[in-house]
Every structure is written in C-alpha cells, then in structure tokens.
Specification:
The complex is a heterodimer of chains A (222) and B (460). Chain A has 222 residues and is an alpha/beta fold. In chain A, 41% of the residues lie in helices and 22% in strands. Chain A folds into 2 domains: 118 residues, Rossmann fold, CATH 3.40.50.2300; 91 residues, Winged helix-like DNA-binding domain superfamily/Winged helix DNA-binding domain (Arc Repressor Mutant, subunit A, Orthogonal Bundle), CATH 1.10.10.10. Chain A contains 8 helices and 12 strands. Chain A is globular, with a radius of gyration of 18 Å. The two termini of chain A are 31 Å apart. Chain B is rod-shaped and about 160 Å long. By secondary structure, chain B is an alpha+beta fold. In chain B, helix 4 packs parallel to helix 9. The chains are: A alpha/beta (222), B alpha+beta (460).
Chain lengths: 222, 460
C-alpha cells in the first residue's frame, strides 16, 4: 500500500512517514503543493494525507485539480482548521475524511486503514481469504489461527494481495503500490518475495497468471 | 415631544420667534393705525373750524354771525359729542354763539389752559369738556370789528374722543384675533414642517434597526442629500467593522494553524518515548491542544458579539453538513433524514450555525446504528420574546440512561469525549448557543438514541 504524505511541516512530515512506514506502508513525502500535485497525478497512491496550508499551491486546490484530472484515490485532509465550514469545504472539494490537528497517530492510522479497505471493497477491519486472515489494525496475518511471521516487504505484498483477492494483480501494479518512489524497482524482487510467501502460506493460494501477474484466492486444493 | 429632541428644539425656537414677533408687529400696526385715525380726526376738526370761522365772518360784520352752512348734522343733536362755540374774550361783552348740540354746556378752551398756538394760529388740546366727555378741541382767535369796537373772539370746535376710542378698540380686538390666528397657523405649519422634515431620520432609524436585526447589511434607503454623507460614513463604518471581524477571524485561524502543527509534532514525538518526562510532555501538550481549541473558539465568539447581526438560511447548512457526513461515514451506511422547512432563517453567523449543527450531527453519526434525524421547526412566539426555532438532532444509538441525562458530567462526557477523536463538541455548542441566548437540552429520542434539542433565535 502506497501512501503520499503531503505536509509542509518537516517534523510532522518525518513523524508521519516514520509511523506509516512502521505500519507497513510504502510512503512518499512531499513538502509543497506543486511537488505533491505532481506525485499524486502520476503515481498510483492508495491513500493521500493532505495538509491544507501548503506552500505554492494550497491543499484544497491540489485536491480539486486531482479530482478534475480523474484521480480518485482516497484523500484524508490533515489540518489545524477544524471548523465545520472548513470540513465541509474540504469534503466538497473531494476529500474522503478529515483529521484535525493535533491528532493521535493511532486515530490517523485507523482512518487510513478504513480508507484503504473501503477503496478495495472490504467493510471490516479483518480481511479473510480461505485459511488466511489479515488483521489490518495490528498488521498481523494468521493462517488457521496461527500467526505467520513475515518481513515488512512480505507483509506489504501479502496485504496488498489480500486487499485485492480474487483479482489479477500485475507485477507493475505491485511494484507501484509496494515501493516508495525512490526505490530501485526491480520486478524480479517481486518474484523473490512471491516465492518466499508461497513457502509460508499454502503455495497454491498465489497463482501466477502467465503474462498478466498474480492472483490470490482461497486456493483450489479441493 | 421630548425636550431633548431635534423636533423640540426646532419647535421651541419657532414658537419663541412667533411669540416675540407677532405682539411686536401688533403693537406697531396698532400705533400706526391709531396715529392715522387721530390725524384724520384732527383734520376733520380743523376743516370744521375753518368752515365755521369763515361762515361766521361771512354772516357777521363787527360781530360774528351765526354760521349756517356747516354741513355737519351732529352739531344739531344735543350732546352728540360734536360742538362748536364762538365766544368773546378778555371779559368784554360781545356775542356768544354755540352749536345746538352744546345746549347749556361750554367748550373748555386751550387758550385758557395756556396751550400755545401752532404756526397756523390754531391751539390744539385734549381736554375734559361737556358732560365730562374727553374732547379734542381746536381753537383759533379772530378779531371782529375795527378800531374801538375791535373785539377778540375765540372760535372753537370740539369733538368727543369716544368715537375714536371705540373705533380703535374694535380695531384692536380684530387685530389681536387675526394675529393670534396667524400665530396658531404658523405653529401648526411649523409642526408639520418639523414632522415632514425629520421623516428621513425615521427612515434612518428603521434602516439601523434592520441592520441590527440582521435583515440588512448596509443602509440603503433613498435619503435626502443632507443625510447622504452620514449614510455613506455609516456604511463605510459597517464595512470596516465587518472587515475588522473578518481579519480577526483570519488571524485567529492562522494562529490555530500555527500552533496546532507544532503541537501535533510534540504529541507524536513524546508518544514514541517511554520516559516519564515524555509522558508528562504528552499529557500537557494534550491539555494545551484542548485549551487552544477552547479559547480560539471563545475568541471567535467574542469577535462576533456586538457585530452587526447576520441571517443564515438553515436548510442549506443542514444539507451541506449531511453531504459531508455521508461521505465521512459512508462505510456505516447511515441514513440521514432531514425535515427542515425552506425559509427558516437563523439570526446569526453561518459559521456558528455550521459549528453547532456540525458537532451535533457528527456526534449523532458516531453513535447512531443506522439513522440520524435532523428536524427544524419554528416555535410559537412567547409574548414579547424574540421569535425562536428549534433544531432537533436524533440518533438511534444507545442513548443515555435517566441518570446520565440528569448528571451534567456524564452528559458532557457523552457529547465531548466522542467516540474516536477528541474534541469539545458539547461545550462549544453550548457556549455558542448561549452567546445567541439559545439553549441546549438532551432527552431520549423516539427512535431510540439521544435527542439533542437546540433552540436559537429566528430571523424575522
């Protein structure tokens, strides 16, 4: 899951990036409206954290431009302006949620999870796929009730596949959604991680669809 | 008409002027008229004296003859008030002639009263004469006969002044009456003039009260050109007042933004540290955050108080808030039901209504199972009290027990410590409502959960 943090305060930006990375997201940071708009327009983010008071282009304008350009990723506005008139203006500009500063990081993370889930069509915080179960709150995966030990990259990959289970996910899509912008994107690493995952969960759950990508499903062992 | 009023000042000066001018004018007119009347009386007496003397000379020789052709019938009527008399002087014998009207009386003579003659040898005097009448007497001395028989005669004509006095009295009465009527007329016209002239001031008063009640933002009445500068100044003042409030709002918002971001950084930084110091910092930063929110809201409120009232249509505010909440809570699939008659207008700022309604709807959304209801209704006006309307926000969530409903602390908790997220929802709503002399009540909703009833002033 890729997140864009668009916040001009350097400290807060750093904290957000750290907290989101810890929570298993691939995070890009931008500090002004221009850079942020460009990233949001070109990269496929799963969630954007958007501050409204940005240099160069203000947050609301950035959001409006994205929406006009047909970018409809979930956007959570993070702002000190917590009057309802501001909230309504933000939502009307196309935001999906609104978090007022100062905020609790846990709350922001919960809101992000909710947006990611909603965008992939899951109503609950637990995502199940056959014997696999992903608790998005704690970022833990269990197989038949037993915890599965995963590295952070493995977790990112499995979590993305579980959010989009029963759907073919291309290698490019995986690279785009799992790695930060500056990451050295070698699609072979995806194959390596798929291989590792197959050792930790029933191997036939992740199918390779030749020429298209991968699909996670309950498995056709039966 | 109060004494400290423009109308009173204008009326009082006009009245003083009328009361001063009309009597003086009356006296001047009367004295001119009196002089004229007396002069013409004297002229008449003088003419008669000339006629009687020449007639007497014509009809006499060494002695005066009885005048025959005087042409004044009043000389023939006894005690008519008109008399003539020809009398020898120096105590020497001679012919005494008098008009029939004089009968046995005699005319008092100016020469005996030591009145000096004028340049035409006529002595004039006002004396008390026959029958105690006040008479105007003209007398001239003429010598009849020559040599030894020459004899000085006093020829006099007297006329009672009663006639003149009567005529003057009647003139005085009519003049007084006419002037009094003129005075009353002037004052009435003046009163009308004041009322009519000051009418635009009432328009200004109405305009100002419309601004105060929030129906108008500026003074737009078509006013006479003398008041237009005042109107322009007033409108400029209103505009600058609104600008100041807007600026204060902007500064307050900027301050909020400036403080809250570093505060968020401190809170997040401290949270990651396990030390007691970090815990203290985190705790205090949390308190600071709440205090900032609380006092910024108070500051916003204070900036509003005393500002010219505004009017906000309730329905669009409800619609936009519900639209936003539907998006924020779209996973919950809550249904929002709004019952708000179009045209219900809140007398106050849109932002404040949004704040109150937003917090209540948000709170209800957080607790609701499936339904949030917003209903707005105008309240029957109490006598004299400002018209009001009520906003009812209800949810079908768990609601409050009777004990919770009556305990202010528990009530506050339900409203303030709203599920996720922190805030001071209730105190802000209550503070705002109180600042508009409105009220906030909690009770159980018919659909199961909590019902919050907010009463606010209705714009007329």
């Amino acid at each position: 899951m890729r997140v864009l943090v668009l916040e001009d305060d350097r400290d807060l930006n750093r904290q957000l990036v750290a907290a989101l990375t810890d929570a298993g997201y691939a995070v890009d940071a931008a500090f002004d409206g221009e850079e942020g708009f460009f990233l949001g327009e070109t990269e496929p983010y799963d969630v954007v954290i958007l501050d409204t008071g940005l240099p160069k282009i203000d947050g609301i304008s950035v959001l409006e431009q994205w929406r006009r350009a047909g970018r409809n990723m979930p956007v959570i506005i993070l702002t000190a302006r917590d009057r309802w008139s501001d909230k309504v203006a933000g939502i009307d500009a196309g935001a999906d949620d609104y978090v007022a500063k100062p905020f609790h990081m846990e709350e922001l993370l919960a809101r992000i999870r909710a947006q990611v889930r909603r965008a992939s069509g899951h109503a609950r915080s637990d995502i199940e796929c056959g014997p696999l179960r992903l608790d998005t709150k704690t970022a833990r995966v269990t197989l038949d009730g037993q915890p599965v030990k995963l590295t952070s990259h493995e977790y990112r990959l499995l979590a993305y596949l579980m959010h989009h289970n029963d759907r073919i996910v291309s290698r490019t899509e995986l690279v785009e959604h799992l790695y930060e912008q500056d990451f050295d994107r070698d699609s072979n690493t995806i194959e390596v991680f798929i291989g590792r995952l197959r050792k930790k969960i029933p191997p036939d759950m992740i199918k390779t669809i030749r020429g298209l990508g991968y699909r996670l499903s309950e498995g056709d062992a039966n | 008409m109060r004494t400290n009023s423009l109308a009173f000042r204008l009326f009082a000066t006009a009245a003083a002027w009328v009361l001063l001018v009309l009597p003086v004018a009356g006296m001047i007119i009367y004295s001119l008229y009196r002089e004229e009347v007396e002069n013409s009386y004297d002229r008449r007496i003088g003419v008669l004296l000339t006629v009687i003397l020449s007639d007497s000379i014509d009809h006499g020789d060494s002695e005066p003859g009885a005048p025959k052709d005087v042409g004044e019938p009043l000389f023939e009527i006894t005690h008519s008030g008109w008399y003539w008399q020809i009398k020898p002087l120096d105590g020497r014998p001679g012919r005494l002639l008098v008009s029939r009207s004089l009968a046995d009386e005699r005319i008092p003579l100016p020469s005996e009263a030591k009145v000096e003659p004028n340049d035409r040898e006529v002595r004039w005097a006002t004396l008390t004469g026959p029958l105690e009448q006040t008479v105007r007497v003209a007398e001239t001395i003429y010598v009849f006969g020559e040599g030894q028989s020459a004899q000085r005669y006093s020829v006099a004509v007297a006329a009672a002044l009663e006639e003149v006095e009567n005529s003057l009295l009647s003139f005085r009465t009519r003049l007084g009456l006419a002037l009094a009527l003129a005075g009353i007329g002037l004052l009435a016209v003046n009163l009308f003039q004041i009322r009519f002239g000051l009418l635009p001031l009432h328009q200004v008063e109405k305009g100002l009260s419309a601004i105060r009640s929030g129906e108008a933002a500026r003074l737009d009445a078509a006013l006479p050109q003398e008041i237009v500068p005042l109107q322009q100044e007033l409108n400029a003042l209103l505009k600058s007042n609104q600008d100041i409030v807007e600026r204060a709002r902007t500064h307050v918002g900027n301050l909020a933004h400036a403080l809250k971001t570093p505060l968020a950084v401190i809170v997040n930084e401290a949270r990651d540290e396990p030390s007691g110091f970090a815990r203290k910092v985190s705790e205090q930063a949390e308190i600071m955050g709440k205090q900032i929110s609380l006092y910024l809201d108070r500051a916003r409120m204070a900036a509003r108080i005393g500002v010219i009232g505004r009017v906000t249509e309730v329905r669009p505010v409800g619609e936009s808030l519900i639209r936003a909440l539907e998006r924020i809570y779209r996973d919950r699939q809550l249904s929002y039901i709004m019952d708000c008659p179009a045209g219900t207008r809140f007398q106050g700022e849109r932002q404040d209504l949004e704040e109150m309604l937003g917090n209540l709807l948000d709170n209800a959304s957080k607790w609701a199972r499936s339904k949030v209801m917003l209903s707005v209704a105008t309240l029957p006006a109490d006598n004299g009290a400002h018209a009001r309307f009520e906003i009812r926000v209800e949810d079908d969530g768990p609601g409050l027990t009777d004990q919770q409903l009556t305990d202010p602390i528990l009530r506050g908790r339900r409203l303030d410590e709203t599920k996720p997220g922190s805030g001071l929802g209730h105190s802000i709503v209550a503070d705002l409502a109180h600042s508009y002399s409105g009220g906030l009540e909690l009770c159980r909703a018919e659909i199961g959960g909590l019902s919050v009833r907010l009463t606010l002033p209705l714009a007329s």
